[in-house]
Amino acid sequence: MDTQTDALRVIENATCTFCGCVCDDMVLKVQGDRIVEAKNACVLGKAWFLNHHPEERPVAVVKGKPASLDEAVEQAAEILVNARYPVVYGLSDTTCEAQRVAVAIADWIGGCVDTTTSVCHGPSGMAFQGVGEVTCSLGEVKNRADLIVFWGCNPAESHPRHMTRYSTMPRGLFVPKGRKDRTVVLVDVRRTKTAPAADIFLQIKPRKDFEALWALRALIKGVPVDPKLEEETGITLTQWQDLAERLKSCKFGVLFFGMGLSMTRGKHLNVEAALALARDLNQFTKFYIKPMRGHGNVTGADNVVSWQTGYPFGVNLARGYPRFNPGEYTTADLLARGEADAALIVASDPLANFSQPAREHLLRIPYVALDPKETPTTRHATVAFTTAPYGISVAGTVYRMDDVPIRLRPALPSPYPSDEEVLRRLERRIRQLLGIGSETGTLISGQP
Amino acid sequence: MLQLTMYTIPSVPLEAECVRPDVLCSLSEEEVLRQKVLYGNREEKLGEFFRLSGSGESGEVHVEGELGKVKWLGARMRAGRLVIHGSPGMHLGSEMRGGAIEVFGNVGDWLGAEMRGGLIHVHGDAGHLVGAAYRGSRAGMRGGVILVEGNAGFEIGHGIRRGLIAIGGDVGDFCGVNAIAGTIVVFGRVGWRVGAGLKRGSVVLLDPTSGFSPLPTFRQNGVCELVWLRVLARQLAQWRFAPRALTAQNAGQSPAGETGQYEGSVATGDNDTRTRLLARFQGRFRRYCGDFAELPKGEILVRAL
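Structure tokens for the assembled complex are given below, as produced in the milestone run.
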């Protein structure tokens, strides 16, 4: 691509980190300190790329007053080292490199480490432990899937390029005619913008996903189910039988589920039902299941916390070894119960979306926040760092929703340090204060 | 009897799995006070939180105080008697193998999780996941008895494999989910999806108006009178179990799964309660077998009107 003026730069194959699709075919045009065009980006991606403007905030704020990076790191380290029950939370909107330093900090200070997964697909993480996940990459979906089921999600609005790039539309090796070779089923409680893109739309009654999935499990095994299923789910038994037959007879099926399953009544047990259905279907055909992950690198957060502690979120490191218990060590819960006495919040805004008791407790305790933008959480933080936005100004690794790592190509320079840089300084200072980890020491983060 | 009275209320969770009669009763006073507890992320001594009186010769430990943030009391205990005057936090009697725990108060989540033996008797409410399997674990409670006179939360007896859970009040959703075997008795109302994934085992619902709605993968197969239920009733009466649904005037009015304030001990095992308890097990029960999505050898017994 030609550059039109001296100031205009073009970044090809840039990566969008707005949603879990992590599309890596962006062509960004940069003029001065702004991105002026984002080719290939969807409506969400455009909003993400085009709305970045230079911040005019201090690099750090301590107790409401601007401070140098060193002063802020010192204060933050003292807060975290002195805490008895600190929690490290957020992490889904930053790079994997920063995430692993955050986990290292949680390990040094003996705290809980939790990601925003715990308030979106956390129940899915629990269900994976209970049942297991029959998984595949989106590349396999693109090249092989002839039956796509979207359950409790609305990709047309939440992941606009999912259908065109990965799931329903693209032509693949074994589905050469693309959309014509596929059957698309949508199960949801309301007619969303995804409905017109589906061949079959089943509008089930709210909060009846478990009953429906459970009945499907019985139907595919040939076990007759109670006809009152129709009254319960709002879909006739014949329709469910038809879906069960389609599930069994497809060549390569995949079920994508969203928070319509994981965050409605039943939560992780809804997801367990869906996972068990996918598992059972493998007695008949190839069938896979994937969650539709939201934030850009929330899948990376799960991966990083998993490979470092063995569990994806809600992990406590107070005893020096990891313990996993969602509900006990998940941030929203331990704040609501008034347990945490300090927090490190990375790229997340719990003060805008947690429950009232959790928010009130967070306001009572000292906490450190890292965010590229000013948010309610950074405004009330004891120590707040302004960091450079990942994907826009920071390179690194992020994971797509199908656990595929993708490299970021930043477009704009930033006067602010990256999350990783701030966290590394913080980690180093924490180690000094704790009197552990000499310069040659080996760290969980893999860096001296 | 060894009396532990809390004098420092913890501001962050205190993990005190050393508080179990089979450990403390054989120790000297100094040794008891030196026992390690985890206060947040640092080890402290038991004596920094509890005052000690009495001796442990009888094999009995009494604990008293603001115990809401104290976790793992009586965990893995094998013998002796632990009496708690207060409302302890999570994991009370978790993985317990023997002995008895009696609580005059409410308890947190994971009461008796994965317990193997012994008896837990709670006079107040319990949280979620009573006798459940820890996340990622195959089986929950594998033996023993849990009696809760008040309400309990969600996923009671998740993955239970053996043993008995009796809830005297209401329970939340997914009571007996993924149960492998064992028995769960509920005196009050139930939430949704009772017995989902039931493989074997029995869930007994004693309130004919419990709000029970079977999953589509269960099938009703008749009405029955079962002798073992009467034997069970007599055993519960012998344990002086006083279900709230049978003692309180306003039984069944509080929403399932919500735990209220503990308002002192109910009239445990008085004659009226005993008579009502025995009567509750008399008569006919509708039997639903399932879960047909799993191994359908389980049963849900619902008391007929």
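The radius of gyration of chain B is 19 Å. Chain B touches chain A at residues 11-13, 38-42, 69, 90, 109-110, 128, 134-136, 155, 173-174, 177-178, 192-193, 196, 214-219, 291-293 (CB under 8 Å). Further analysis is deferred to the final report.
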